[in-house]
Amino acid sequence: MRRHEKAVTDHAELKEIFAAGQVCRLALSADPAPYIVPLSYGYRENVLYFHAAGAGRKIDLLHKNPQAGFEIDIDLGMIEGEAACNWSTRYRSLIGHGRVEFVESSEEKRRALDIIMAQYTDGEFTYPEKAIKVTTVFKLLIAEVSGKQSRV
Question: Which of 42, 66, 74, 106 lies in disulfide reach of 119, CB 3.0 to 4.6 Å?
């Protein structure tokens, strides 16, 4: 990172950003250009969890190449300046990459869905077996992550 003073390196701070995030943007390899999709997610122990319909461009791309990048940001805000060059943005963000694996067992799908739901709300949920069977669940095993912030 060029601006070392903006780096977030403390593990607790990185976890805080994962916990506070609402949307994860997943970047996939596509031809002729990258494909980026915003998703609901859950985070636990260096793994991001997602759910989706069983078919579509995202799923096709993940089957072709399970390597994916991601971005999460929080605390966004514009900081106005008197001149154009004095404007800035306040943020805390994460970027990283890893390998996606599809979750197959009903039991693991339920655990993953619980992790996703815990990202947004307290409470316990049940999932009908019929819904579990038609829901695609996948996880991104994080290989590398870096954090950056600007609290101007």
Answer: 42
pLDDT tens by residue, 74-125: 988 888 888 888 888 888 999 999 999 999 999 999 999 999 999 999 988 9
DSSP H helical segments within 84-126, as ranges? 106-118
Which is nearest to 45 in space by CA: 135, 152, 142? 142
39, 54 contact by CB (below 8 A): no
Please answer whether residues 32 and 111 qualify as being in contact, where contact means their C-beta atoms are separated by less than 8 angstroms.
no
- φ/ψ of residue 130, rounded to 5: -60, -45
C-alpha–C-alpha distance, residues 143 and 80, integer Å: 37
Q: What is the CATH number of domain 4-147?
A: 2.30.110.10
pLDDT higher than threshold 70 for residue 53:
yes
Q: Are 140 and 68 within 8 A, CB to CB?
A: yes
Q: How many helices (H) and strands (E) does the chain have?
A: 4, 8
* Cα separation, 101 vs 108, whole angstroms: 12
